[in-house]
Design a protein that fits this description.
Radius of gyration: 20 Å
Distance between the termini: 40 Å
Order of helices and strands: HHHEEEHEHHEHHHHHHHEHHHEEEHH
Number of strands: 9
Shape: globular
Strand content: 5-15%
Largest sheet: 5 strands, antiparallel
Length: about 350
């Protein structure tokens, strides 16, 4: 697991020295140009938009929405609502873990922290739980933190940032229970009933399930992975919290410029969201940088911000939807190189005319 940490910390550096980078970056750009109806992108340099495509279109965020959870965590930790170094039993996190639904993110995070010696008496620090939400994208950690922070407070940050288009944030793990067929009801009928729910009703239904997971130890056993068919997963993916690339660039531009929030909050947030800065090599060309991505079987999203050593500020958000499995895998291989080119190469930025 030490190798995982090394890869995470050297995320930017490796792409900048890899001969594959130029080809991968160009391949990403070509895919975007050829698939405009499935893509949204917004790129900003020093406060000025330099590329935009479907930037006002609502699209599912997947785990990129966890930026909002990280912000609320940093706010409350900074103002001592809780002690960020407090230990929490792994059993508390396990309440929200559904095996084989997160690509191994949660167990991999536990192994990682264990190897670092950060697990004490089967417990982890809150700050490490928050970092696991961002670095490993643990959904169990996210759901636990939403409960700790208050989902209403997380949604309140949408208004704080002045985000214009954003559907409600809700517990992601709990939402999977809506897509179950324990009584052999026809799949199409379940999907029809779910589609009938508006966003408020959908969020309330999930909140009820979340409380069951929190207080009823046996409730998790009701989950049937086999019920989560591809068709069900598509409906679930489409109903994930959604926003626009323009709104997310607006938000990460605030984070990049260190405005609205106070210094104490940014000190905590940088520890959670800016782990690439733990690599000394990245410090040679970056003042600070943060990122979060997300994916489902059909969705791939990313938001990246950076302030370079020369003072240049770059913010990028790009979202894809309705992808095939091969497309999703292919794009994930190109993302790092594409982002490096956007951050480092002015001539490449000028090519992003959509």
């Amino acid at each position: 697991m030490q190798k995982i940490k090394k890869l995470l910390l050297f995320f930017f550096l490796l792409a900048s020295t890899n001969l594959f980078a130029q080809s991968a970056a160009d391949s990403m750009l070509n895919f975007i140009r050829q698939n405009k109806t499935r893509t949204s992108l917004y790129l900003q340099k020093n406060g000025n938009a330099i590329a935009a495509l479907n930037e006002n279109t609502l699209m599912p965020l997947a785990s990129t929405v966890k930026i909002l959870v990280a912000v609320e965590f940093a706010k409350q930790a900074a103002f001592k609502v809780f002690d960020e170094n407090k230990y929490v039993s792994l059993k508390e996190l396990d309440k929200y873990y559904l095996a084989n639904t997160d690509g191994g993110a949660h167990p991999n995070w536990i192994k990682y922290e264990t190897n670092l010696g950060n697990i004490k008496n089967d417990s982890a620090r809150l700050i490490d739980i928050a970092k696991g939400m961002i670095i490993f994208s643990s959904n169990a950690n996210t759901e636990f933190l939403m409960d700790l922070l208050g989902v209403d407070n997380v949604n309140g940050d949408i208004r704080m940032f002045g985000i214009k288009k954003h559907t409600p944030v809700y517990p992601l793990v709990s939402s999977l229970f809506l897509y179950q067929d324990p009584k052999n009801i026809k799949e199409d009928k379940i999907i029809e009933e779910i589609k009938y729910l508006n966003n408020v009703q959908y969020s309330k239904a999930i909140s009820v399930i979340h409380n069951e997971l929190k207080f009823n130890a046996g409730y998790k056993q009701k989950f049937r992975l086999q019920d989560l068919t591809v068709k069900m997963q598509k409906v679930w993916s489409d109903r994930l919290p959604a926003s626009t690339t323009k709104d997310y660039v607006h938000m990460i531009s605030i984070l990049n410029n260190r405005t609205i929030l106070d210094e104490k909050t940014y000190n905590v947030l940088s520890e959670v969201l800016e782990t690439v800065m733990e690599n000394p090599a990245n410090k040679s060309w970056l003042d600070h940088a943060g990122m979060k991505g997300g994916s489902t079987m059909f969705v791939l999203t990313k938001a990246v911000y950076a302030t370079l050593k020369d003072g240049t500020k770059i913010e990028l958000a790009y979202f894809f939807n309705n992808l095939s499995n091969p497309e999703n895998s292919m794009l994930q291989q190109w993302m790092n190189a594409f982002e490096i080119k956007v951050l480092n190469d002015e001539s490449f930025r000028k090519k992003i005319i959509l």
